[in-house]
Amino acid sequence: MRIAGGDPQLGRELIQRYGCVACHAIPGLSSYGANVGPPLHRMGERAYVGGVIANTPDNLVAWLQNPAAIDPRTAMPRLGISEREARHIAAYLVKPH
After folding, report:
1. CATH 2.60.40.420 applies to domain 8-94
2. Which positions are tagged coiled coil (predicted)?
3. pTM recorded for the entire structure
4. In whole angstroms, how far apart are CA 24 and each of 4, 32, 76, 93, 95?
C-alpha cells in the first residue's frame, strides 16, 4: 500500500510527537509496555483499520484524524492530527519494517 503525499520519515517524527507509542507497539520505535491499543505491525497488510473499515489509504488517514467518527465505541482519542500529518503517519505505518 502506498500513501499519496506521505513521507515515512516525517511520519516517524509525528508518531513520536503525538505519543502514539504510549498506547501502541510500533515497529522501529521504542514502546515498552505499550499495550492499551493493538500493536501496529504490518499495517499495510491488514484487511481492516480499527476492526471496522477496509484498510485503504484514505480510510487509514481518516481513522488517524478522527477515529470516533468511524467507530464511536473506539478508545482511541482524537489527537488533532491534520490530514497532511495523518498521511505522513500512515506512510510510516504501512512501510515494510
Report:
1. yes
2. none
3. 0.94
4. 24, 9, 10, 12, 17
- Say if strands 48-49 and 53-54 run parallel, antiparallel, or are unpaired: antiparallel
Residue 67, all three cell numbers: 477515529
Closest residue by Cα to residue 25 from 93, 96, 95:
93
pLDDT in tens, 47-57: 999 999 999 99
Q: Compute the distance between CA of residue 51 and CA of residue 16 in angstroms, rounded to an integer.
A: 24
Domain positions in the chain: 8-94
Q: Return the beta strands (E) in the chain as ranges.
A: 48-49, 53-54
